[in-house]
Design brief:
By secondary structure, the chain is of the alpha+beta class. The chain contains four helices and seven strands, in the order E-H-E-E-E-E-E-E-H-H-H. The chain has one domain: START domain (Alpha-D-Glucose-1,6-Bisphosphate, Chain A, domain 4), CATH 3.30.530. The chain starts with a strand and ends with a helix. The model has no long low-confidence stretch (mean pLDDT about 85).
Length: about 170
């Protein structure tokens, strides 16, 4: 199963980044694919918690937290409703975050995605096409997560700062 990953240093302590990632009902702030999330289980955190994430079209996909090490690692895996049916060449197997302190105020965040190809065409696509495509999505998610803690500068702000320096 191929795995893609992207890393980023984010200007926030590990505890703050962890809180943003694991606040699933607000996940749309960093995950553009999840417009709305609702819990399916009474459990809200830790291994076994289940939730449904809805995309822009309102289609929901069920997930389970499969790994949980507070402020260090969390993994989400899709719940397959009918495993015998394989309508896609590739299916997501898991998405996970690894957090490591870079220093007191910065966190090294690595976001992983693992897929599985179905059939020969799916296997080829998963090995040779999917990784680069998926890295783009991982970068967008990390960009959005970073923007929560480091809002992007307005376009005219650099000019203002240069003028102030003179």
């Amino acid at each position: 199963m191929p795995t893609s990953y992207e890393s980023r240093i984010i200007a926030a302590p590990v505890a703050d980044v962890w809180a943003a990632i694991t606040d699933l009902e607000a996940a749309s702030r960093w995950n553009g694919a999840w417009q709305r999330v609702e819990y399916l289980s009474w459990q809200r955190e830790g291994v076994g918690a289940t939730f449904r994430a809805y995309n822009e079209e309102g289609v929901g996909h069920n997930f389970r937290i499969s790994e949980w090490a507070p402020e260090e690692f969390v993994a989400f895996e899709p719940l397959q409703d009918e495993p015998e049916e394989r309508p896609y060449l590739i299916t997501l197997q898991s998405q996970s975050f690894l957090l490591k302190p870079a220093d007191d105020d910065h966190t090294d965040v690595t976001l992983f995605a693992t897929a599985k190809g179905h059939g020969l065409r799916g296997w080829i696509t998963a090995r040779f096409v999917w990784p680069n495509y998926q890295r783009q999505g991982l970068r967008r998610a990390l960009d959005n997560l970073q923007d929560l803690f480091e809002p992007p500068l307005e376009e005219d702000e650099p000019e203002k700062n240069e003028a102030e320096a003179e």
